[in-house]
Design goal:
Length: 83
Amino acid sequence: MTEVLTWDDRCKKIFGLPADFPVTYEWHLKALHPDDLERVSKAGAIALHEQTEFHEEYRTFYLRSHCDRPGTFRFSIFLTAAD
C-alpha cells in the first residue's frame, strides 16, 4: 500500500493541477478544509485499514504553490476504493 492517490487528468484539472502533478495523500490532506480534516482523515484511515470504499463529502481549497486558482474553496464529494 502506498500513499499515492490515482487521479486522472480531469480530476487534476478540477483542482487546477497540471496533468503531471503527483497527488500524494499528504498533499491531499493539506488541501482539506481545516473543519473537515479530522473527520476525513479518520474515514480515510479506516478505509485503508479495512480495504473498503471511502465515501465522504468535504471541502477543499486550492493550494497556492500548485495551482492556478490559489486560496479559493470548493465542495467535493469523493467515492474511492483502497488498493
